[in-house]
Amino acid sequence: VVGEEFIRVFEEKAKDIGKVEYLLQGTLYPDVIESISLEGPSSKIKSHHNVGGLPDEMKLKVLEPLKYLFKDEVRKVAKKLKFPEEVIWRQPFPGPGLSIRVIGSADKEKLDILREADEIIKQEIKKNNLYKKVWQSFGILLPIKTVGVMGDIRTYDFVLALRIVNSSDGMTADWAKISYKILGEISNRIINEVKGINRVVYDISSKPPATIEWE
């Protein structure tokens, strides 16, 4: 569903621009390995929107110049080409945006909630000089609500899972041993500033057996 909508949105935008033939994607080798059973023992792990999840019929031709490179190799290329530091060190982000980080059905309300929480995570990670040190740091909005209390008022809101991992190539990853103080600051800010979330949990799963993204 995500892969289909992803392409259709680009096709609609291409009409507004004019004559557009190609869609340039930042597909990396881990996406390919996980999405397609290649020659050898590797098996299909999940369908990434940009590999196994694309629709059969497309009006745009896909270009993927980086599909056989790992993220660390892409950064080396970017440095050689003298890209800005903020571009080189930008953390991996899913092409379809936050929709795959909303578990279950995604709508505007949930996406707005997650977008606010994600911005707080990014701010706190950067403030504590961790942005370049960790591989990824983001939130996942879970499809469950729990009871909480704000002042004297009972709340019944969503749970956010905080995911921060260390990795060198995205093929394997370990959960980041962030200080309790920083985790507490992130949690407190999200719960106090983001309407719709009243609980934050920290994902301490490594890859494997878990994957970095939840979907």
Query: What is the count of β-strands?
Result: 6
Averaged pLDDT, please? 90
**What series of H and E elements makes up the topology?**
HEHEHHHEEEHE
The secondary structure category is alpha/beta
Number of helices: 6
The figure for the number of domains is 2
Separation, N- and C-terminal Cα atoms: 12 Å
Task: Give the second-level CATH assignment, the architecture of the largest domain.
Answer: 2-Layer Sandwich
Gross morphology is: globular
Runs in which pLDDT lies below 50 for 5 or more consecutive residues are none
Report the helical percentage: 25-40%
Proportion of strand residues: 15-25%
The third-level CATH topology of the largest domain is GMP Synthetase, Chain A, domain 3
- Name of the top-level CATH class of the largest domain: Alpha Beta
Main sheet summary:
4 strands, mixed
Rounded radius of gyration (Å):
19 Å
Pathway: Purine metabolism; GMP biosynthesis; GMP from XMP (L-Gln route): step 1/1
EC number: 6.3.5.2
Organism: marine sediment metagenome
InterPro entries: GMP_synth_C, GMPS_ATP_PPase_dom, Rossmann-like_a/b/a_fold
Can you describe this structure?
This protein is of the alpha/beta class. The protein has 2 domains: about 90 residues, Rossmann fold (3-Layer(aba) Sandwich), CATH 3.40.50; about 110 residues, GMP Synthetase, Chain A, domain 3, CATH 3.30.300.10. Helix content is about 35%, strand content about 20%. It contains 6 helices and 6 strands; from the N terminus they run H-E-H-E-H-H-H-E-E-E-H-E. Strands 3, 4, 5 and 6 form a 4-stranded mixed sheet that branches. Strand 3 and strand 4 form a beta hairpin. Helix 5 packs antiparallel against helix 6. The two termini are about 10 Å apart. The mean pLDDT is about 90.
